[in-house]
Amino acid sequence: MLAKLAAEECWERLGTHGIGRIALPVHPGPGVFPVNYGVDGRTVVYRTAGRGAAAAENGDEVSFEVDHIDEYQSTGWSVLIVGTAEHVTDPGTVRRFEEQPGSRPWAGGVLNLWLRIVPGQVSGRLIRDL
Amino acid sequence: MLAKLAAEECWERLGTHGIGRIALPVHPGPGVFPVNYGVDGRTVVYRTAGRGAAAAENGDEVSFEVDHIDEYQSTGWSVLIVGTAEHVTDPGTVRRFEEQPGSRPWAGGVLNLWLRIVPGQVSGRLIRDL
Lengths: 130, 130
Known about the structure:
homodimer; globular; mainly beta
């Protein structure tokens, strides 16, 4: 069974931080990469290397997906945000993001580009076994 | 630290079945949805409703992502397949897929469309904390 989640429920499930997947409209095929994310207001922020796989251009139409799947219970949910990527350049905002939990990227190195995803559409699905 | 995985290592990590994410080149923004998948030779197969969110058109350029992330250890890997979607219509092949482990879709309902992703590019990344 699939049940749709309301936008507010989607944000509740996203929480304040976690692991999500950024999908970029590259050719050929969308590029999809896991990233550490944070929630800032009704936007999603993540950090990456300026030229890394998960780096979007300013203004790119991107998607961001988070799911939680229980393989044993055969239940789960997924949330999909479709929106626009923005490079975050304001030093005060960057400083605030760096103080958030989960902002430290695992891959290490100099990850000096913060990206904000400004949502256009937010949709979510609850998946339950029949 | 990011380390690239060779194609053969990518297939080893995909295993024979599991949960992955299909990314479709829809407008606006890529659509990304978790699906149960199986591996058939050097292709990925999954089942969906003919008109469901995860349904691709025959010949669509799609991506398929699988990752395994350990939030506590801050380690993980991800594999990305970029390829072409094919509708599987041969009854013998469909029967064979339905006998595979993990082929049962959780969402239930009549999921009568099997899709095969024929890879163009296969790439993988190993993520280790520094």
